[in-house]
Amino acid sequence: MKSVQCFTLSFIIILFRSDMVFGETWAVLVAGSTAWADYRHQADVAHAYQLLVKQGVKSDKIITMMYDNIANNPKNPYPGKIYNTPDGNDVYAGLKVDYTGKNVSVATFLNVLKGNTIGNAGKGNEKVLNSTIEDNVFIYFVDHGGFNILGLPVGILTKKDLQNALDYMYTNRMYKKVLFYLDACNAGSMFEGLESEKRIFAVTASNSTEDSYSTYCYNKLKLPCLGDEFSVAWMQDSEVHNILTESVGRHVDNVARNTANSHVSQYGDQSTRSLAVVDFQGGIGNKKFRNVITDVKTGRAWKNISINSRQVPLYMIKKKLTNPIEIAVKIKQLSLKRAKLDDLLSQIVHNAINQRNLAQLILNRKPSRISKTATYCHDVVIKAFDVDCASFDSNPYAFSLSHVFANLCEVLQNPEPILQQFRVQCLNVTKTVSVTE
């Protein structure tokens, strides 16, 4: 009997020692869009902030970036409030946003990841990651995306940019593990080839060649789509399960099952699947006692009618108008604007490639990944197109065409012939016109 008592006492001492070392949880939350029609992106991030704080992540360890023009938008029938689910609470109340407006830029985001306070001097509250090798980092990014690119109000984030920032974090021992959730079209393309030794586990709403989906679009609140399918799925799973006992692997598998219209994809360090969700979405206080708290909640399937994210503008036209003739006129106008952008790219490709069959292949092929040389070319070309031809922030439809530049770069392996076409073909293009609304 004494030996049993001693064993039990020793076990309890090991489990509850107050001097056990646990790293902090840091989080970076980013909504990259600005339009009222993209309400869901800021709603997703606001909800994520509330969830993390409720689960014990310290607010001073959460860095939030969003344009912050939705809650008090003149179109909002609920001034000062944002909803992520039809029957949910206001997720804007108590939200702390660190970077707003034009400070939500590519440069700001990369400085946040690199812990570069000097680079963010004078921007927002200058908050950046100050994590160490003992800390886990959770990154959640939601916005429009295309092949190897993501949107932000200022600038375009390329795969090359993101890879360089994550490499910097790894080299400078800024994390123990990173869990990266990315909700965007073609999201998987940003992480194809991610090495497992970097200790980064990336989970994306879609693979490299497909679109993601928006949800809660048919709501009684008279609001645009309230959330994104993948985002709502991961947050709901965290809310209905005990994150102290649920593994990241089980969590991700549940999210994949409840993301019905796209393929949730996983990249990088698969060993992260065995860790508890609390290691990335919970506070240090929770981590100490996770082994003695049992899961008393049960998951539930999440179901709702979802819409392809690239087609939300069409849905918004139908929702806003009631006259069939007006609806038809608006849809035709939108289609014509998109067709002009399609024609622009067709001209660029056919002038850069004087082989008709090859040009058609470049316009239509959807790659899953491209070579390193082509990735460099794509980085240069995409950023030039954003400045010289059509701003991606004003023209989200352009994201769906980013694969064309990837194919063109794979063939030419040199950005200069493409840039030359921009100088000619984009000379008289109206750069600020929206082709989505």
From TrEMBL:
- UniProt xrefs under CDD domains: legumain_C
Q: Which residues form the active site?
A: 144, 185
Which reaction is catalysed here? Hydrolysis of proteins and small molecule substrates at -Asn-|-Xaa- bonds
Q: Does the keyword Signal apply?
A: yes
Decide whether keyword rRNA-binding is in the record: no
Q: Which residues form the signal peptide?
A: 1-23
A Pfam family annotated for this UniProt entry: Peptidase_C13
Which is a GO BP term held by this UniProt record?
A: vacuolar protein processing
Keywords (A to Z) from UniProt: Hydrolase, Protease, Signal, Thiol protease
What are the recorded GO MF terms, alphabetically? cysteine-type endopeptidase activity
Q: Name one GO cellular component term.
A: vacuole
Q: List the InterPro entries hit by this protein, alphabetically.
A: Legum_prodom, Legumain_prodom_sf, Peptidase_C13
> What is this enzyme's EC?
3.4.22.34
Family assignment? Answer: Belongs to the peptidase C13 family.
UniProt protein name: legumain
Q: Could you tell me which species this protein originates from?
A: Panagrellus redivivus (Microworm)
Q: What is the lineage of its organism?
A: Eukaryota, Metazoa, Ecdysozoa, Nematoda, Chromadorea
